[in-house]
Structures are given as structure tokens and as C-alpha cells.
Amino acid sequence: MTLLLVMMDSNSLYNILLNKAVQLLAQRNHTSLEIKRKLSQFYHKKYANSPDEIIDLPSKIQAVVDYCINQKWLNELAYIEQYVLMRSRKGYGKNRIVLELKQRGIEEIIAWKLINQQDIDWIDIGIAQVSKKYRAMDKHSLQQKNKIFQYLSYKGFAQEEIRLIYDTL
């Protein structure tokens, strides 16, 4: 009942934050951590002159995030799947993607579990990246081998994957 009363007041802090969250989620999927950060930044940029509401801010932001999750507007599993596909298409390996997801507030165990469930050929992605970067390649050059290993490591591929990719070239 109180939720309805709060939502009826169009100028309430909760309503302002909810509108911003809906706007953000309409543009693309986000994690709950990203939404929390963006709502906090939004509030401090626009409404920094009302210090009495700052005390309620974390609880209001959490209430907005919980509401978005309950409405199924905020779905972290769908976000992870979409993010893994997007980054793998750009040529990044599992390690890099998991690190980026961790920075976005996703637990490492969940990220690894969902990455391993994806039907992605990581070796083909690595081969495509090496072929794109090193068109003319001397496979007998130790210096070039080291460069390829370093490049694929930077892109987030594991050592075993890098060896398989290099042997396939």
C-alpha cells in the first residue's frame, strides 16, 4: 500500500530514480551494480542540493533495483549471455570476458558457468584474430610466436587455447 502512495507522488525520490532506471534499461541491459552506480551518479549530478534525501538514497536505489528485478526488466543472466556473445564476436577470449563481467558486478563463478554453457568455438575466434592481425606469418620465427602468444593472452585466451590456436595455424 505504501508503495502505491510513493509512486503516486511524481516528484518523490523513488519515482525519479525509477524513471531513470527504466530509461537506462530501455536503452540496453545492465547489471544491478551498473544500475546502482548510474542512479547514484544521476542523483548526485541533478539533485545534489537536497542533502536530506541523501540519507535515504541507498535504500531507495535498492528498492528501485528490486522493483526492476521483480518486473523482470533487470535480468543478469540474460545480460551475461548477451555480453558473452557480443565480446566473443569482437574476438575476446573467456578470461578477458570473465574479468570484464566481474568488473560489472557479476560473480566470477556465475560468469564461468554461463560462458562454458555457450556454444562458442573459442579456437576459431583465436585463429580469426591471429589471421586478421598477422596476415603474413613466419611460423618458424620465435619472435613472432612470442608476439602471437602475447596478443592472444591480452585478448583473454588461456595458455592451452593459445597453444592449440598456434598449432592450428
Automatic annotation (TrEMBL):
GO terms for biological process: regulation of DNA repair. Signal peptide: none annotated. Gene3D superfamilies: Winged helix-like DNA-binding domain superfamily/Winged helix DNA-binding domain. Residues 75-108 form the RecX second three-helical domain. Residues 127-163 form the RecX third three-helical domain. It holds the Pfam family RecX_HTH2. It is found in: Cytoplasm. GO terms for cellular component: cytoplasm. It comes from the Bacteria. InterPro entries: RecX_HTH_2nd, RecX_HTH_3rd, Regulatory_RecX, WH-like_DNA-bd_sf. Keywords: Cytoplasm. The keyword tRNA processing does not apply. Its main location: cytoplasm. The keyword Cytoplasm applies. Belongs to the RecX family. Modulates RecA activity. This is Regulatory protein RecX. It comes from Orbus hercynius. The lineage of its organism: Bacteria, Pseudomonadati, Pseudomonadota, Gammaproteobacteria, Orbales. The gene is recX.
